[in-house]
Design a protein that fits this description.
Oligomerizes as a right-handed, spiral filament on DNA at oriC. The protein is an alpha/beta fold and 499 residues long. Helices cover 52% and strands 12% of the residues. The chain is built from 21 helices and 13 strands. It is elongated.
Length: 499
């Protein structure tokens, strides 16, 4: 019976494909799955209520013609729709829309009055009645592009809104981003077919979230010419939706986003507190995901910390993979600077590169900004870049960073307090007084700076991050168990209070 329903539906698709455009066929008929054939009634499964309603409104005649040709005058069509309960603890249920036997015509396609995607977004509620109707389908309406309101939607000419300079080739990999980059590359190579759907990338400002997700989009565009990739910020998405409400064009807005094969939504936290926009995105997300389309998102925090988003949205964000981006370590910062130099044809001495990588350790964006400032100063002053020039030119920038993250001050203060030299603090010696000073300095470096454990270890004579962990734990234990040592730490802490 399963084979029969597949055969019948395959034959129906051939009939339908001959009468509609290729893109419309891929969007509205390829996602349909035949379920069963019984007593001349073909049951098909569609991804959503909105999908069903769109078929009935625009393609009912094509469906009637195909069913009549395959099953004869008594042929009927039923739809199966997965209905979401809005509860992560419950499984979605399947709603079967019954055949209307009294309706005229060879294939009675029933109409379901449950709220459409667009209406649901506007009202936030659903009606649960069903009404029988078979009316001639009007020609598909002229739909407007929310990115260019003066233009109609022509899928082959739609812009992806991507910045072509963001690629995997110039996205430097390091410990801080390895998981996210690897997952992004997997998605770019096989969009919609991996378990990373959706892919959520989160991290602080300037860590490369936008670069990574746009690199995914650019890679897909270069290798899958038939895929429509769309990048949009959550703010832009919200503003478009508000404009569609104002101009009574919500259906156009929804239809546009349902054409997308790969949707990249940047800064999803912007949807917080915007209930109607979340409702719209929820339905678009469901439709695209069920149709095997790829969804990629970014956020400034993990899903569990996103406040003001509906639980049903948050649960969907966790369906795929969530990967974080962290501040780049010293080696990665060095590689970023060198890559930027190569791209821009800049020649900077190695000691200057190392100075920049040591001094600016907050995020990639600030690091690149410092490099641009340095090159600008060099050009304006017609002077070759050297270490002294770099320190002078970037004094105000570096001072801001050092005032906030001053590891040198911590090392010097601890060395002086314990009566050891700064060189010994960074040396390999295991003398007790030096080890204590070094461990305390590492403890305060972890407490008062944003350096990673690996970076702290590097500043203490190239030690491993595990040494830093051991030092921090040792000092913490001594604070709890040794009253005299606790007083020592309290005295030193006062010296760092103003930093």
């Amino acid at each position: 019976m399963l084979k029969d329903c597949r055969t019948v539906w395959a034959n129906c698709l051939r009939v339908i494909k001959a009468t509609i455009g290729e893109q419309s066929f891929r969007t509205w008929f390829q996602p349909i799955v035949p379920v069963q054939l019984h007593n001349n009634v073909l049951l098909i499964q569609v991804p959503s209520t909105y999908f069903y309603e769109f078929l009935e409104e625009h393609y009912v005649e094509e469906l009637k013609r195909a069913i009549h040709q395959e099953l004869g005058p008594e042929g009927r069509l039923e739809y199966s729709i997965v209905v979401d309960q809005g509860n992560a603890q419950q499984k979605p249920r399947t709603l079967n829309l019954p055949t209307t036997r009294k309706a005229a015509g060879p294939a009675a396609v029933v109409s379901h009055a449950a709220t459409s995607l667009a209406a649901s977004a506007m009202t936030g509620s659903a009606r649960n009645t069903a009404a029988a109707s078979v009316t001639p389908a009007p020609a598909p309406p002229t739909l407007r592009n929310p990115f260019e309101a003066s233009k109609t939607i022509e899928r082959d000419y739609l812009k992806s809104q991507l910045n072509t300079t963001y690629t995997f080739e110039n996205y430097i990999e390091g410990d801080c981003n390895r998981l996210a980059r690897s997952a992004g590359l997997a998605v770019a190579n096989k969009p919609g077919t991996t378990s990373f759907n959706p892919l959520m990338v989160y991290g602080g400002v300037g860590l490369g979230k936008t670069h990574l997700v746009q690199a995914i989009g650019n890679h897909i565009k270069a290798t899958n010419l038939d895929k429509f990739v769309l990048y949009v910020s959550a703010e832009k998405f919200t503003n478009q939706f508000i404009e569609s409400l104002r101009s009574n064009a919500v259906q156009d807005f929804a239809n546009f986003y349902l054409l997308v094969d790969i949707l990249i939504l940047d800064d999803v936290q912007f949807l917080s507190g915007k209930d109607k926009t979340q409702e719209m995105f929820f339905h678009i997300f469901n439709h695209l995901h069920q149709a095997g389309k790829q969804i990629v998102m970014t956020s400034d925090r993990p899903p569990r910390d996103l406040v003001g988003l509906e639980d049903r949205l948050l649960s969907r964000f966790k369906w795929g993979l969530t990967a974080d981006l962290q501040s780049p370590d010293f080696e990665t910062r060095m590689a970023i600077i060198q890559n930027k130099m190569q791209q821009d044809g800049i020649d900077i001495p190695p000691q200057v590169v190392e100075y920049l990588a040591h001094s600016v350790n907050t995020n990639v964006r600030e690091l690149e900004g410092v490099l641009i400032s340095l090159v600008a100063q060099s050009s304006l002053n017609r002077r070759e870049i050297d270490l002294e020039m770099a320190k002078q030119a970037l004094r105000h920038i570096i001072e801001e960073v050092e005032a906030e993250v001053n590891l040198d001050f911590i090392q010097k203060t601890c060395a002086e307090y314990f009566g050891v030299s700064l060189d010994l603090l960074k040396a390999k010696t295991r003398k007790k007084e030096v080890v204590t000073a070094r461990q305390v300095a590492m403890y305060f470096a972890k407490e008062h700076t944003t350096h990673s454990l690996k970076s702290i270890g590097h500043h203490f004579g190239g030690r491993d991050h595990s040494t830093v962990i051991h030092s921090v734990q040792t000092v913490s234990d001594l604070i709890d168990s040794d009253k005299s040592f606790r007083s020592t730490i309290a005295e030193l802490r006062k010296k760092f209070a103003g930093k």
